[in-house]
Amino acid sequence: MLKKLLEADAIGLRLEWVGGLPLWEVHPTYRHRKAVDRIRQSIRPLEEGCGCVHVADVYIQFPDGSLKRPDIALFCREPEELDEAITQIPQGVVEVVSRGYEAKDLEIGPRFYLSQGVKDVVVFDPYTLLVLHLRKDRVERHISPVTLRLEGCELTV
Length: 157
What we know:
The protein is α+β, with helices and mostly antiparallel strands. The protein contains three helices and 13 strands; from the N terminus they run αββαββββββαβββββ. The model has no long low-confidence stretch (mean pLDDT 93).
């Protein structure tokens, strides 16, 4: 499956397989990439033992078999997989909304991540500056710029 997803990437599509359904979008714009880079530069550890390892735009294989590619995935330790999809569940993910793919980023993604054991989901809309911080038990709404405390890490969106 991963090979097919990577073939789609070669023609300019980001393809994900979520809960048995294919989801696609075109490659991100400069505004999108700039937001991801800015957020990644702000990530820092909050507690001893969490390295706040962050990776951008890599495939993660979740327990249900889904393959998803978050804009930023946060781990407390380095993932073991270097040449295939990561199977370690991230502590947190950050998604930057892409114009035309709002439903994927705002509705499908957060529910999916939380159902798979991700503790913190952050969604940033660079057009409206809305920042959502979702956990299983709550949803917080903010306006960027805002500093958020996640499980083991802190970041500014």
